[in-house]
Amino acid sequence: MNKNKGITKFFGKHTYNKLYTYDEFSELSENEIKNADVNLLSDQEKIYLEYSKINLQRTTRIHKTFKPNDNVVKLIMQFDKPQTWLMITEHWCGDSAQNLPYFVMYAKFNPLINIQIVLRDSNLEAIDDYFNSPTTRSIPKIIGFDENGDELFIWGARPKIAEDLVMQLKAEGFSKEEFNEKLHLWYGRNRGKELEKEMISLFSTLLKKIV
Q1: Helix, strand or coil for residue 20?
Q2: Spatial separation of the C-alpha atoms in residues 94 and 180, rounded to whole Å
Q3: Position 138 pLDDT exceeds 60
Q4: Cα 72 to the chain's mean position, in Å?
Q5: Cβ–Cβ under 8 Å, residues 102 and 85
Q6: What pLDDT does residue 2 have?
Q7: How do the domains of the chain map onto residue ranges?
Q8: Is 46's pLDDT higher than 70?
Q9: Distance (Å, rounded) from C-alpha 49 to C-alpha 165?
Q10: Alpha-carbon distances of 19 from 71, 90, 102, 132, rounded to whole Å
Q11: What is the DSSP string of 112-143?
């Protein structure tokens, strides 16, 4: 079986730079942080580096404190055919750090689920069809495929309640820095509970379609 058959169909004729496993993606991030020479970085790259450092702390905390929700696990274990979950992301993305670890850890309960990661910014042409607009390429974006390469689901870029919070804060005139602070405070307090509710809904609906 070609584990990346769904990936091949997803990209079609477009070329992409590289696919990563979650461990490879994490290692790449750690190495970039460790080996970065701030004297050679642009101002934007320095900002991204600081974001990446914070995100490493976030993902580490989630992995250490993760307690699986039995209802999510039961649903995950019912998938009896191979799936590929393609995650579009970047190391500096705060929403990715707060959400992807949960998807990855739950996927480990079913060996039929194959996680693959593609970096957004170096693959824009290949992935733009999965964004609403070239100006709103919100990440993370997760696309699930079956063994035939047919789309099963799309999730992203954050739980609906978190998205509603961001929209409300923007409407009230909060700056990006201000609403990001409030958003990540919400993530820290919620500890993945809202995401797990969405997983239960997502996977329950999916099982009705494929079983």
Answers
A1: strand
A2: 9
A3: yes
A4: 17
A5: no
A6: 55
A7: 5-157
A8: yes
A9: 26
A10: 30, 12, 20, 23
A11: TEEEEEEESTT-HHHHGGGSS-TT---S-EEE
pTM, full prediction: 0.91
Average pLDDT for residues 109-122, to the nearest whole number? 94
Domain 5-157 in CATH: superfamily? Glutaredoxin (3.40.30.10)
Res 134: pLDDT: 54
Is the predicted pLDDT of residue 117 greater than 70, yes or no?
A: yes
Kindly list the distances between the CA atom of residue 6 and the CA atoms of 85, 115, 145, 195, in Å, as whole numbers in the listed order.
Answer: 9, 11, 5, 25
Q: What is the CA radius of gyration of the chain?
A: 17
114 beta partners: 84
- Residue 207 contacts residue 78 (beta carbons within 8 Å): yes
- Tokens representing 152 are 């099963």
Mean pLDDT for all residues in the chain: 91
Residue 118's closest CA among 14, 16, 4? 16
Cβ contacts of 130 within 8 Å, gap of 6 or more:
88, 141, 143, 154
The band of 17, judged by pLDDT with boundaries at 50, 70 and 90, is confident
Contacts of 99-104 spanning 24+ positions with Cβ under 8 A:
99/140, 99/158, 99/159, 99/195, 100/22, 100/59, 100/140, 100/142, 101/59, 101/62, 101/63, 101/66, 102/62, 102/66, 102/192, 102/195, 102/196, 102/199, 103/142, 103/155, 103/199, 104/22
pLDDT at residue 133, as a whole number? 56
- Cis before residue 140, ω within 30 degrees of 0? yes
Tell me the average pLDDT across 162-175.
96
